[in-house]
Structure formats: structure tokens, C-alpha cells
Amino acid sequence: MEYTTLLLNMDGTFLDFGAAERSAFFRAMENNGYEADEGTYKLYSRINHGLWEAFERGEIDKQTLLFTRFGRLFESMGVEGDGAAFEKEYQLLLGEGHELMEDAWEVLEYLYKKYDLYVVTNGVEATQRSRLKLSGIERFMKDIFVSEAVGYQKPQIEFFDYCFAHIDGFEKEKAMIIGDSLTSDIQGGNNAGVACCWFNPSGKERSLELRIDKEIKSLKELLQFL
User: Model-level pTM?
Assistant: First the structure.
């Protein structure tokens, strides 16, 4: 298949969200006088992951996710804190995190010359755009679609319908989504009827019955078929 359009997830695929999240978490905790160690971070990660899964299933909205997670963390830690205020500071710090995944720049520079590249990401609009700009990879993108601005999130079909409607001359059969999340990117690609490439650097098992057209362990593998 000759593809013309690539829909690119960012966090965990081209941007190292893990590094950005970790840095923002510990900096925000220190700034607010909370003691935090690896156990605290793992506790937050479990709370956050559960809320994101509920968000992707459409069970909660973005505001509930954002302004609940740190309140739950503080409650679990047995400390007092304003979760909503903490979230705002955390988002500002997160927006500074722009580390790239291995080979991301080289691969994007190559793909940019051959395909129309679009960001499709779940997250906070200002935070995601800040990270894309600081990383420098914003220049490769024809447009950026963030769930907060779209009003829907991956894997909802409405998110993709919005994206497709805002891409000039879009042809579904000539599009591929590339991402690391089975529940968000690959499920979303299945829902939307586009080809799916699963970025699976850690060799996870397929936990869902999904159509996966390509599976890669490194971004450089994209150069073998694109």
C-alpha cells in the first residue's frame, strides 16, 4: 500500500513522556514541600493510569481526570493538599519536558520528506504544543490534533472523524497511525479503519484482539517499509 498520510502519536512513541512526567512529578512535589520517593511515584502512576483508562473508555471527562489524580494521591499519602492547584503547576513543568525517543529526529526528518505528518495525541492542548515546540519536531507536522481541543479522545471514532475532516484530501486507505498504545492508538486506528503500526519497544504481549498491520521495536524499523 502506498501511504500518503501518517498519524503520529507522540507520548511514548516520538516524545519520551516517561522522562518528562517523572521530572515534572518530582519537581512539583519538591516545590510544594512533599517528600516523594520511588514508592510515591509508583502510587501516582497507578492512580493516573487507572484514570486515563477510564477516560479512554469515555467514563470520565478530561477535567475529572486532571483535577482528581493528585487529590487521590494526597489522600492515599495521608497528607493535605490542593490537587487542582498542584495539577496546574505540574502541567507547567510537564510542558517543559521535550526529550525525544531514540532515533525520533532522524526518522521524522526522513518521513517528513515523503509523507504528510499529523500529530494525534491525547492530552492538554497547551502542554502538548509546548513540548512539540521545545523539542523542535513541530516543524515536521502539517497539523496537530490534541484531544482537549478536539473535544474527543483516542480511541473514540469521533476524535478521528474530526481529524479526517480537517485534513485536506484525506483518503482513509492511504493513512496509517503509528503509536505505542494498544488501547488508544491501535484500538483507535481499528475503530477509524486506517492501517495500524504498533511501536512496541519492550516486546509486550498483545493483550487485545486487534488488527495490527505492522509491529516495530525501534523507530528506525519504519524506514524499512515507509
Answer: 0.87
